[in-house]
Design brief:
Layout (H helix, E strand, L loop, with lengths): L12 H20 L3 H14 L3 E2 H7 L8 E6 L3 E6 L9 E7 L4 E12 L2 E9 L12 E8 L5 E6 L26 H4 L7 E4 L13 H14 L9 E7 L4 E3 L5 E4 L2 H15 L7 E7 L16 H12 L5 H9 L2 E5 L2 E2 L21 E4 L3 E2 L10 H13 L4 E3 L9 E2 L3 H5 L4 E6 L1 E3 L6 E4 H17 L1
Parallel strand pairs: 1-2, 4-13, 4-14, 14-20, 15-21, 16-18
Antiparallel strand pairs: 2-3, 3-13, 5-6, 5-10, 6-9, 7-8, 7-10, 11-12, 12-22, 16-20, 17-19, 21-22
Helix pairs in contact: 1-11, 6-11, 7-8
Amino acid sequence: MENKNAWAKYENNEQKQKVMEFAEDYRKFISTCKTERECVVEFEKQAKAAGFKELNDLIKNGETVKAGDRIYVNNMGKAMAMFIVGKQGMEQGMNILGAHIDSPRLDLKQVPLYEDTEMAMLDTHYYGGVKKYQWVALPLALHGVFVKKDGTVVNVNIGDKPNDPVFGISDLLIHLSADQLEKKAAKVIDGEKLDLLIGSIPAASKDEKVKESVKANILRILEETYGVAEEDFLSAEIEVVPAGDARDYGFDRSMIMGYGHDDRVCAYPSFQAILSIDTPEITCVCLLVDKEEIGSVGATGMHSRFFEDAVAEILHLQGNYSEIMVRRAMRNSKVLSSDVSAAYDPNYPEVMEKRNAAYFGKGLVFNKYTGSRGKSGSNDANAEYMAKLRNILDKDNVTFQTSELGKVDQGGGGTIAYILANYGMNVIDSGVAVLNMHAPWEIISKVDLYEAFLGYKVFLKEA
């Protein structure tokens, strides 16, 4: 069975322009929102403008909730849930789009700043599954926050503005790398060698006995620019990400190269899809979570109960709360776990099985099961649910394809799908195909992004 290329639907210039305009808005989004905190700030701003109200405000004011109400929950500035209350009671279930907004990167350690041979360095710890050798010899930026002892939050974004300096991790020159090149790729760069070079000018001082004067100069700059001291690194969250904007890719500008497609290329159309919904029959949800790249753990990951608690609070504001109502609302829900899939790469055909691979231009990707070897750790969606989704997508002429993540014995991966399935929900993974997944610069097809948006809208309205 061969799927048609989705670009064929957009031969008309006006139709094609819609694809390009949506992709351009997305390109701007991932160029500026490179951390989960930055994503939540932007999404919250747009949600408020679209009439969404914060759940805690409704609770404080003792307001009631009715069909059509738009509600959002900000979880610690790193995760978010948005609800549009449906005409049917929530115990009938919800239509949920669930994506994650964290991406592989490097994080600064709590005591990161040091000097070595009159060079100032920052020590890092990589986050998520990365090929460490991909993070050397390229321009990097610092995004994040310092939180001072008095609770003051200092936002940091250095390396992406036109006149900003950038930072980087050095690689060994080819002339001295004979031993390095004998190592396996996983060992070519050690994790403890992913340290960032950030300065080399010593502090101006008449006291020649001052130790680590380059580090002292960096601390002076931080104090003058941001009002932070060395001890403030103890309560900081600074992420090291690729510097620079996402770019159109290819002569035909059909693709986008950018950092963080995994999984913002699914989070963004999920968010835009729920903004497009009026008063639905069934409560619609856009769930944007953190920590998926390290196992969905922690208070802002999908394993936390923040989403379940939000459902309980909304039922309470409807005057309909009970433990059994919460359980019914969760159990009767349907979910698209919106996460990326591996695109077929002609340079590496040996790891893919062509009949069951995702391709650029073939639309929204469904992964019936993920996991690894023997479907271990997967959420295996049932056939009835897949049939229902095929029906609603075909009715609206949404282009989609099915895929597995590589050949059976090659590997695999996981998403948040199995966590939501623990409630008894119908869940399937669906998203956008990505080349270079988990690399500093990933690539997606613009038409696949747009088909995901269309598919997510249909799902929210009709699932």
